[in-house]
Amino acid sequence: MNLSELIENCGMALRAVATHKLRSMLTLLGVVIGVFSIIVVMTAIRVLQDSIETSLSQFGKDVLVIQRNPAISFGGPEVWEKIKRRKRLTPDLGELIREKASLVKSVGMQNGLFSGEVTSPYGKTEPSFSLLSLTPDGFPAKTLSIVSGRALNSSDEENGRLVCVIGSKTAEALFPNSSPLGETIKMDGISYLVIGVLESKGAMLDNSQDSVVIIPLSTGMNRYGRSPWGLTILVQARSQETYNDAMEEVRGILRTARKVPPGEADDFEIFTNDSLIEQFRSITFAVRVGAALISSIALITAGIGIMNIMLVSVTERTREIGIRRAIGAKKRNIMTQFITEAIFLCQVGGIVGIALGIAGGNAAAYFFNVPPVVPVDWAIIGFLVCAAVGVIFGTYPAYKAAQLDPVEALRYE
Amino acid sequence: MSLIDIQRISRLYQMGTETIHALRDVTLQIQRGEYLAIMGPSGSGKSTLMNILGCLDTPSGGKFVLNNSDVSVMDDNALSEIRNREIGFVFQSFNLLARSTALQNVELPMIYAGVPKSERHKRAMDALSAVGLADRVHHRPNELSGGQRQRVAVARALVNRPSILLADEPTGNLDSKTGVEILALFEELATKGNTIIVVTHEEEVAQHSRRIVRLRDGLVAADEILHKNGAAAPETPVFPPIHASAHAGPPPVPPGAH
Ligand SMILES: Nc1ncnc2c1ncn2[C@@H]1O[C@H](COP(=O)(O)OP(=O)(O)OP(=O)(O)O)[C@@H](O)[C@H]1O
Ligand SMILES: [Mg+2]
After folding, report:
1. pLDDT at residue B97 tops 90
2. What is the pLDDT at residue B121?
């Protein structure tokens, strides 16, 4: 098929669709639904994924996070029973890793302690701010940087001082007009001296990273004892290359220390940014498969509709086929003409479906207040799938058209 | 060599148990540049013969040599190419594509011939000008009169410079005045050396040609040359004198045979 013929075919297809607007629209509805359902789900998942990935990247790329409980888990009650029986993580384990692991640069530890409002002489925050305790090495691991004052240091830690570093949101709420440094804030009944302010993380999904008060781990221990959420150990690997080896080393140390018998699963969780993202992907997999299934069913139904309408079209245009054959169209010219038309028909539906799907999926973006995404790859896949539907269901009518006897076709009334 | 050389061709249709002989035994030679009319009563096989001459249909028996190539053995693709390059059709009911403009209709044979766009456009415009429709190129068939539609059809038939123009009842759907215009157009084309074969049952139309082949019951009943002094044709079959030596097949059946 040469280009002129392709253009001519597309022109004919356009005129055919334009001539039977209502009929074409009804036929295309199936394609629209099929493409819409897959694109809307994929767009929505991508929107969520983007925002979740942003919030997950609160840890540095070279950081291993160790917790007693999994970050995301879908399991029956028996899975949870098992997790509940696990021993807590303790600061000694962090110390142990620091001592023993050769591939580890630093070990930070974090406890979540309390959630509530923070007050200062100048104002107070909403009751959703969190109090964390963190060792000095936890700052780089969490990629926290200081904009004014200083971070917590080992002397604060050793002496269990009542000092804190506050997030940018906290600073804004408590000290709208002045520097917080050297001032005192109060949270859960205890006063802390502000020694530093964190740079804003500007996380998109939530701003919890900026709504914090961070105190030394020991200070937190003195006041609260164990954290209700459990200790988090943040291990920074020496380098990107030895990252996986470091993970194995740390796992070995923990298993030995916690006396996990060989062959049994870890009684703790080690995860990385990548593994968390991976987990999210595997959870959304089911949703994706469901969407793909719905959309395939819709597309098959649509394909049958298209085949039907193409057969009608071939019959209606028998005479046209005869004319084309008389002036020199070969069977394959007729064949390509009708297949092009079927593809064209599908693509019209496909484009509408893709547009609606992207718009619908980005409603999620609007809802979560994150930037919209355009899933170009899925748009292309949608486009190709429509083409495939056109080819698959257009071939038989096109074949019928091509096989018509020219003389009979010309005589057709 | 004759442009068209058909030897003893037949065309049968099987209708259940009954066999219909649309053409029984037709032998005919047509030279380049002839203007020929095929006449005969309804059902005598005119359209059948015309479809075979136009390579739309293949004979059940006999041999058809067009332009020195044996058409009877060609496959569908080859026949399509012959139709595209060697034959131009004009039909009683115009047979234009309704949703396409005059220009698009005329360009169509060249699309199948693979003519590049710019040349295609130019040739289509020229062909439409030649039939006097330069100012109607963007009109669709339903925006044209019957005579204009048939002119578009003629332009489309001639645009690939075919060896033969085949017209089946070209004036059948036109009033007599418009019919005369189309016949004048044919006359002009014939003078320029085009080979034209017109199927008609109207004696007046046939009188515009230079030779009349009369069919009856699938056989050639008469084959007469018209002397272009306006006089009526002689009743006895006459071979075109200039081509007489080229005839190889058996002579046409004399009318007295029936
Ligand atoms: N597809 C077909 N199936 C069966 N019989 C056919 C078919 N086509 C033509 N015939 C028969 O062949 C014979 C010749 O038909 P043809 O169409 O050639 O006649 P014609 O001379 O063109 O007549 P008219 O002047 O009415 O157009 C007729 O008896 C017709 O019934
Ligand atoms: Mg006829």
Report:
1. yes
2. 95
Q: Which atom number of ligand 1 is nearest to the Cα of residue A411?
A: 1
Which atom of ligand 1 sits closest to the CA of residue B15?
4
Q: With an 8 Å Cβ cutoff, is A406 touching chain B?
A: yes
Tell me which of A252, A271, A290 is where a domain ends: A271
In this predicted structure, the answer to whether residue A294 has a pLDDT above a threshold of 90 is no
* Residue pLDDT, tens place only, A29-49: 888 998 998 899 888 888 877
What's the pLDDT tens digit per position in A169-225?
899 889 988 899 999 999 998 999 999 999 887 654 455 678 899 999 999 988 888
Q: What integer pLDDT is reported at residue B234 of this predicted model?
A: 42
Structure tokens at A321: 């086929």
Q: Does residue A298 share a domain with residue A251?
A: no
For chains A and B, CB pairs below 8 A equal: 75
User: What local confidence, expressed as pLDDT, does residue A21 receive?
Assistant: 87
Atom nearest to B215 CA in ligand 1 = 21
pLDDT at B245 over 60: no
Could you tell me whether strands A129-134 and A212-216 are parallel, antiparallel, or unpaired per DSSP bridges? parallel
Alpha-carbon distance B227 to B233, whole Å? 7
Does residue A154 sit in helix, strand or coil? helix
- 8 Å CB contact between B79 and B51: no
The residues lining ligand 1, judged by C-beta closer than 6 Å to any ligand atom, are B 13, 15, 20, 22, 40, 42-48, 201
* Number of separate domains in chain A: 2
Q: Where are the domains of chain B?
A: 31-60+75-257
Same domain, A254 and A297: no
State the Cα torsion A248-A252-A253-A259 to the nearest 10°: 150
Record the pTM.
0.72
How far apart CA A410 and CA A362 sit, in angstroms, is 52
Same domain flag for A114 and A231? yes
CA A369 – ligand 2 centroid, Å: 74
Is ipTM strictly over 0.90?
no
- Domain B31-60+75-257 falls in which CATH fold? Rossmann fold (3.40.50)
Mutate to test the interface with A, among B48, B108, B111 (most CBs of A within 10 A): B111
Atom 29 of ligand 1, residue of closest alpha carbon: B43
Mind telling me how many Å the CA of A333 is from chain B's nearest CA?
Answer: 8
Contacts of B127 in chain A (CB under 8 A): none
Contacts B56 to A, Cβ<8 Å: 325-326, 406-407, 410
A164 contacts A133 by C-beta, under 8 angstroms = no
- The band of B232, judged by pLDDT with boundaries at 50, 70 and 90, is very low
* Confidence check: pLDDT of B189 > 80: yes
Q: B105 at the A interface (CB within 8 A)?
A: no
8 Å CB contact between B38 and B215: yes
